[in-house]
């Protein structure tokens, strides 16, 4: 298990995912600069493209709880929830491209190169990076400075 409480919160969030089609549950935990935590989990839909990623779910909750401009870190964990109710999975789960873009938006708003911690399902392997490493040369609010009035 991970020693990072944020990773553990992401793993707990994954247990509340709605993933009947892929059976791949993902949870995300967003931490503010003040230590507040917002959680989210993926939610699938029979119309596949209407599914929501855990990171987007957690960022939406973070926006409501403390604001995107106060995001410091995000942890993502995922895998299969077994019959015993435990999350398993061998490889660390990294945010998809769309989620990286959403995290980049928060980083641009906060001025913080948000730390992204990716964990496998059982929390035994993590990879820490920053959003600007995961999405170099990203496009965010600052990119629109020349848009005019």
Structure description:
- With about 150 residues, this protein is an alpha+beta fold.
- It is about 25% helix and about 25% strand.
- It has helices at about 5-15, 55-65, 95-110, 130-135; strands at about 25-30, 35-40, 70-80, 85-90, 115-120, 125-130.
- The longest helix has 14 residues, at about 95-110.
- The protein is globular, with a radius of gyration of 15 Å.
Task: Annotate the secondary structure layout.
Blueprint: H1 5-14, E1 25-32, E2 37-41, H2 54-65, E3 71-81, E4 87-88, H3 97-110, E5 115-119, E6 126-130, H4 131-134
| Name of the CATH superfamily | Cytidine Deaminase, domain 2
Low-confidence stretches: none
Q: Given the C-alpha coordinates, what overall shape results?
A: globular
Largest sheet: 6 strands, mixed
pLDDT averaged residue by residue: 96
Helix fraction?
Answer: 25-40%
Count the helices. How many?
4
- Count of strand segments: 6
User: What is the radius of gyration computed over CA atoms, rounded to a whole number of angstroms?
Assistant: 15 Å
User: Would you list the SSEs in sequence order as H and E?
Assistant: HEEHEEHEEH
Number of domains: 1
State the end-to-end distance: 51 Å
**Which class best fits the helix and strand makeup?**
alpha+beta
Portion of residues in beta strands equals 15-25%
CATH topology: Cytidine Deaminase, domain 2
CATH class: Alpha Beta
């Amino acid at each position: 298990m991970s020693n990072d409480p944020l990773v553990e919160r992401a793993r707990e969030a994954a247990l509340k995912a709605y993933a009947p089609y892929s059976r791949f549950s993902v949870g995300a935990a967003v931490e503010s600069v003040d230590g507040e935590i917002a959680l989210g989990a993926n939610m699938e839909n029979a119309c596949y493209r209407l599914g929501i990623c855990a990171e987007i779910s957690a960022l939406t909750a973070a926006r409501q709880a403390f604001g995107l401009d106060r995001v410091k870190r995000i942890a993502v964990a995922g895998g299969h929830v077994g019959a015993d109710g435990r999350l398993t999975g061998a490889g660390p789960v990294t945010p998809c491209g769309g989620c990286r873009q959403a995290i980049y938006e928060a980083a641009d708003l906060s001025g913080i190169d948000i730390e992204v911690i990716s964990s496998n399902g059982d929390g035994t392997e993590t990879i820490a990076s920053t959003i600007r490493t995961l999405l170099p040369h990203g496009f965010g609010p600052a990119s629109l400075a020349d848009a005019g009035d």
